[in-house]
Amino acid sequence: MLPENRLRFILIHPKMLFLVRFFLGVVFLVSSFGKILDPKSFAENLVAYQLIPSAQSVKYFAVTLPWVEWFCGIFLILGVFVRSVAILSSGLFVSFIGAMIFALSRGLQIQCGCFGAAGEMVGLFSLFRDSFFLALSSFLMISNPDAYSLQQVLVRRRRPETKGDN
Amino acid sequence: MTFKEVDGRPVLISTENSPPKTSPVHKRVELAELKTLVSGRKAVLVDGRAVKDFEAGHIPGALNLPASELDVFFPKFSARVSRDQLLIVYCGGHDCSLAQILAKALAEKGFSHLKVYYGGYSDWFLNGNPVEKGK
Question: Is the pTM for the entire model greater than 0.90?
Answer without folding.
Answer: no
